[in-house]
Design goal:
Elements (H helix, E strand, L loop, with lengths): L2 H26 L5 H32 L1 H4 L10
Length: 80
Amino acid sequence: MTSDRARRLAEAACEAGLVLGLTALPTAWRALDGELIVILAGMLAVLTAATYALHAVTFDCFRLTAQRRKGSFSYTQRKE
């Protein structure tokens, strides 16, 4: 695994943990048991994978289309 992929995976895991920590954990804290921990861990894995895939597709698209070098990220402005 390259450092870029490891950085993306760590960032995706932090974002997924933040989402779960802010939404699901406060609600489930009182009823936290082994089964619920497994469910939350599964949700963390799914959110991490989805976020990682979204980042990978976005950054690879920019890399393949050379948008970073052009400096134009806006798709809403037309040059006429």
